[in-house]
């Protein structure tokens, strides 16, 4: 008995030594990473206002930028916030599927599936943009254009579930005819506005660039959130206690906070050089947008489970399929717009280098 215990303790001691050596083993297994550089060491395109250090040098192999996921630089928090959010969305949805036995072939579930797909898409495209954009000027434009496509897809995915699962009858009777076509147009306009602003304006960016980004995205948000806002206001005025409504309320609050930090370079404006790695406004924007998406997902899952009777009374399978088909039409239009402007950027960069 004593011998067995001593052997077990010896094994644990060896295991502990291996664990202590694990960080060194991982470090040796990764390729040698160039250090980060100052803003003066990267082209103007890559510089952010009030961020003085933590930039990754351009022109290295792709694997450097992929492995920079584990390096300390001024984009790493942007990457990890959306990576963790994407994993959280996937795991939460999978848990819901396991618990509820989601009918994958049912028309009733299709808007929910597209919404989850759109959420994971925008989070993935965003983290790839922040992870890989430092490779070159063309990569910078390309990945941010991809990011904007993801945003438009998420906007319309949100519109679908708000329309089918969240809207109350009074709102539905007034807006059912034009809501989804208008949401699809605003989603494309948001992508086109962001891509055009990125193509048209160079650093230091003028105010007009932010207007081209914020106004179309703001219009899309106002339209997409209208069924949610209508239901939230009526619910709170009547004193209802629906759990989903509280999650919808949090969704709105978190989005508005994230929009503020997207639009304004704070706190780095007041502490230039002090928020280079952690704490600048775009990171806070990412964090609040992530919890906004998770709150939205929780609300939608509650609506899906609790409002099926309302859904089935309103919508035929054909109308659902037609609405969801427009999702893929929007993806095609947004991707085509991004690809067109990328070609113009590529031609401009080629002309500059020649």
TrEMBL record:
UniProt keyword annotations, A-Z: Membrane, Metal-binding, Receptor, Transmembrane, Transmembrane helix, Zinc
Chloroplast found in the keyword field: no
Regions crossing the membrane: 76-97, 109-132, 144-165, 177-199, 245-263, 318-341
Residues that, per the record, bind Zn(2+): 130, 282, 286
Membrane topology field: Multi-pass membrane protein
Xref: InterPro entries: AdipoR/HlyIII-related
GO cellular component: plasma membrane
Domain of life of the native organism: Eukaryota
Keyword Magnesium tagged: no
GO terms of molecular function: metal ion binding; nuclear steroid receptor activity; steroid binding
Family: Belongs to the ADIPOR family.
Name of the protein in question: Membrane progestin receptor beta isoform X2
Organism: Neophocaena asiaeorientalis asiaeorientalis (Yangtze finless porpoise)
Taxon lineage: Eukaryota, Metazoa, Chordata, Craniata, Vertebrata
